[in-house]
Design brief:
By secondary structure, this protein is of the alpha/beta class. The chain contains 9 helices and 4 strands, in the order αααβαβαααβαβα. It has a 4-stranded parallel sheet with strand order 1-2-3-4, with helices on both faces. Strand 3, helix 8 and strand 4 form a beta-alpha-beta unit. The longest helix is centred in the C-terminal third of the chain and has 31 residues. The chain starts with 5 loop residues before the first helix and ends with a helix.
């Protein structure tokens, strides 16, 4: 609630310390998918209605522009639900974003069973009600906030898209039962990300839309792998922003 985990779980600051970019890390947005919700979540008596798309595409750019940051030459990147949001926001605001990256995102929200999986995950994360976010399953917001459905709007946008295999690797140290549970959860989450990301890749390929992909042989849903993916994406980010 008081710091973006990229700032203490990774070396993101150091990765861009010598580059001519402004690195912005928003704080907050638990289970928000960084989108504009219809209502506040009623299951957990949420006190405010999330309006993350409005904040990230209107309020934040205006505040940064007042400090000399070019609001038309921006990249966006995120992990997990943030990866989903990065591609969605780039699709809907092409005048703002010149690059987008998804690390272990869920890129086909309307795949069979995904809406139910998201509902369960959001309840588990803090009793967030998915109906307050996108409405019932037939609401148009489900399609609007699905990178798979919005693929055509990403044509011509430089993108870096990655997902691990779900197989534990160098960063997974299992020393106690908590580690066992966390690793198992990370394996499942990453496997689901890989499946939807591969489907998204197939969708882009069918439309003749290009992107840079990386699918490491090992990697679970955890920070060391995302830090590594940010480093791999870095040259693509700098090139797209003409900051390299």
């Amino acid at each position: 609630p008081d710091a973006n985990a990229w700032s203490f779980e990774t070396n993101a600051f150091e990765q861009f310390a010598l580059d001519d970019v402004t690195l912005v890390m928003p704080v907050g947005g638990e289970s928000s998918w960084y989108s504009d919700w219809y209502n506040a979540s009623n299951f957990n008596q949420q006190g405010v209605t999330y309006k993350w798309e409005t904040f990230l595409t209107r309020h934040l750019p205006a505040a940064l522009a007042a400090r000399g940051v070019d609001r038309t030459r921006t990249g966006i990147a995120g992990l997990s639900m943030g990866g989903t949001a990065a591609l969605n926001l780039a699709a809907h605001h092409r005048d703002q974003f010149k690059f987008a990256a998804s690390f272990s995102g869920y890129l086909w929200l309307n795949a069979p069973g995904m809406r139910s999986a998201i509902r369960i995950a959001m309840l588990d994360a803090g009793l967030y009600n998915v109906d307050a976010m996108y409405g019932p399953p037939w609401d148009e917001s489900w399609a609007r906030n699905d990178p798979f459905t919005q693929a055509e709007s990403l044509r011509g946008l430089p993108m870096y898209v990655s997902a691990g295999s779900g197989i534990p690797g160098y960063a997974n140290r299992v020393e106690n039962m908590v580690d066992v549970v966390n690793t198992a959860n990370g394996m499942g989450l990453e496997a689901l990300s890989l499946a939807t990301t591969r489907a998204f890749q197939a969708r882009l390929d069918s439309l003749g839309i290009g992107a840079t992909y990386n699918f490491p042989n090992v990697g679970t849903h955890s920070w060391p792998y995302w830090s590594e993916e940010l480093w791999r994406a870095r040259p693509h980010i700098l090139s797209a922003l003409r900051a390299g």
